[in-house]
Each structure stands twice: as structure tokens, then as C-alpha cells.
Amino acid sequence: MADYNYECVKVRVHDGIAWTSLNRPDKRNAMSPQLHYDMDDALARLEVDDNVKVVVVTGEGGNFSAGQDLKKFFRELEKNPGERKKAAAAANRWRWERLYGYDKPTIAMVHGYCVGGAFMQLLACDFAVAAENATFSLSEGNWGILPGALVSKVVADMVLPRHGQFRRSAREARGRDHRACGEADEEERGGAARDQTGDQARADDGRRAGL
């Protein structure tokens, strides 16, 4: 079995399911350039790993992701446009281009905070399971700006129109709200979210095998 050793991503493969976690828990899994490079590489390898049938995207330490790490991604690369461009390319590639067209079923397992840029990987996955404590927010609206990169378009295209007010107001919403608006397929209590995700992954693998 292949080894997946990364600085900012943790991969566990068990029974055909690759539990792929953003691993910066002390920063609520805010996405740094290194995390983007690690996730881009991990997803590329998992897609062609014969031991992996389904990929789950989640976060370590009780949160899905607090969005981009403003210090690491923006401020520290402000005077390094080449590295900034490289990091942005990796960020958009794994969060949207790679996941949206992935050859294997993908599930986003959301708990804690899912903020800003994290909506891209959430909505690019085939399914989403949200824990009862999941909190969704497009906080950029608090500063009178639109979410960056592809976030605004992704949310506008994929979230049901009746929740347009959420996109405009930047208010926080809980797991139950987002099951209603189409961002989460299931809403579960506590540890049940992981059980539900595992059940969904095995069901997806079964349907795929029957094709």
C-alpha cells in the first residue's frame, strides 16, 4: 500500500476509503500554500491508487476549514508573485478542477467551521455530510467584499436560489440550514457524521462496482 506522508494533510486508507484530512488543527485547518500543494498531490495519487475506491475530504481537530490562511497565502507572498501564482494554481486545481472531475466518488465530511474558500472543495465533492455542529460562513461580506477565487461563482451556481440572502449577508448558518439549501446531503449528530460518511462511501463503492 502506498505511503501518503505530508506536512499539512493526513491520509488514512481503510477498507477502500481514503480519509483525506486537512491537517492544520491549530489554525482550524486554514489553507496555506503548503496545504494546497499537499492536497493537490495526495488527490492526484489517490485517484490512481487501486486500493482506494472512495475519497472522503475532511479536517483534523474538529473543523473542516476556516478558509484561506490570510497570513501564509496573502501577506507572506505579497512580494513573491511567482510563488503566489503557483500556490493559487494548486489551490484552484485541487479544490475545484480535480475534485469536480474526479474519477472516484468523493464525499465532504463537514464538522465545525466551513468558511470562505472551503466552500470550493465542499461543493466540488459528489456528496456532503454535515455534523450538527457544522457552521458555514462566507465571512468576506463582513468587509464589504465578495469571496475570492472561484468561490462566489461556485456558490452562486450550486446553492439553491432561495438561499441567496445567505450569500449576500455573510451570516453564519448551521448544518441543518445547509441540508435544506443543497450544500449538505445529510446532517448528523456528533460522531454519527463519520458513521454516516462511511456508510455513504461503501454504498457509493457498491454502486460503482455494479456498473
Detail the topology: elements first, then pairings.
Blueprint (H helix, E strand, L loop, with lengths): L8 E6 L2 E6 L10 H15 L6 E6 L10 H6 L5 H20 L5 E5 L2 E3 L2 H7 L2 E5 L3 E3 L13 H8 L5 H6 L3 E2 H7 L4 E3 L3 H18 L2
Parallel strand pairs: 2-3, 3-4, 4-6, 5-7, 6-9
Antiparallel strand pairs: 1-2, 7-8
Helix pairs in contact: 1-3, 3-4, 4-5
Structure description:
This protein is α/β, with parallel strands linked by helices. The chain starts with 8 loop residues before the first strand and ends with a helix. It has one domain: 2-enoyl-CoA Hydratase, Chain A, domain 1, CATH 3.90.226. The longest helix has 20 residues, at 81-100. A six-stranded mixed sheet has the order 1-2-3-4-6-9, sandwiched between helices. The model is unreliable at 164-169 (pLDDT under 50). 41% of the residues lie in helices and 18% in strands. β1 (9-14) and β2 (17-22) form a beta hairpin.
Q: TL;DR?
A:
The protein has one domain: 2-enoyl-CoA Hydratase, Chain A, domain 1.
From the N-terminal CA to the C-terminal CA, the straight-line distance is 26 Å
Radius of gyration: 16 Å
| Top-tier CATH class | Alpha Beta
What overall geometry do the principal axes of the alpha carbons give? globular
Helix content: 40-55%
Low-pLDDT runs of 5+ residues are: 164-169
Number of helices: 8
- At CATH level 2, the architecture is Alpha-Beta Complex
Number of strands: 9
| CATH topology title | 2-enoyl-CoA Hydratase, Chain A, domain 1
Mean pLDDT: 84
Largest sheet: 6 strands, mixed
Structural class: alpha/beta
Instruction: Going across the biggest sheet, name each strand in turn.
Output: 1-2-3-4-6-9
Q: Report the CATH superfamily.
A: 2-enoyl-CoA Hydratase, Chain A, domain 1
Strand content: 15-25%
Can you tell me the number of structural domains? 1
